[in-house]
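FORM 7B: Structural annotation worksheet

SECTION A. Query
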Amino acid sequence: MKRITLAAGLFVLLVATAFAQSPSVSSLGVDGTEIVVGLADGRTLRSTDLVGAVLKVRFEGEPAEVRIAAVEADPDDTSKTVWLHTFEGRQADGSWANLCGPGPDGRRQGFPLQGPQGLEFTCSSGALGKCVRMGYRPWAVGPDGTSLAPLHAACLRMVRADYGGDGRAWTKDGMRIDIYDPQGIQTAEEDPVDRFEAGWSPEGAVCVRHVRVKENATLEELEATYPRLAGRTGAVCTEDFARANGAILFNRSKD
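SECTION B. Predicted structure
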């Protein structure tokens, strides 16, 4: 997953054909998944106005230029608030190339999110982007009126199989998972080859029925690595048990 952090105050260079000269930027922010730029002349530009713009950012710790090559509404987003951006990076020969790898649907796009250190761009093929596109939009509220931020955080742990909540992923690319939650944002597909895997909170798994990738770890190894999971793996881990112990998100996977 590629992540591009845009710290507050970094200069935005507008090179879209609509501008004969680069206007002075007075503010830079994000609204959902839209970039919002305030100009000194009082105008406000949003993502669709910025196609062709080049952002001077830091990418993986190094200065970089990122061009917004295209912007479109996410066709799978029923809320109509997720916008998919095609981000391109300047190559050594001066050409531009897509910064994002393909996701499960083949799209090579991304969007900005407000992160703890500023505006952060993420590709939709990564866990952050996948969870937003699943409906767990951290800036929004769910059907029950509460913030979706905890569900988004739990989804990140689940997608990565971050059982211990320490950032370590116990999965591998291409694994199929069936995700569902009590609010009905995602519902179980009930594929007969899938079995209940785990219940999740923003801190990681609250219990684990079976591991997603057997060659990566055993239940015994998980308990030894994460003492808080002791006595919470195997047959004891049911959906009811997980829910009673704080799970807000559940998943099934092939056992």
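SECTION C. Observations
The chain has a mean pLDDT of 88. The first helix runs from residue 127 to 133.

SECTION D. Sign-off
Analyst initials: ____
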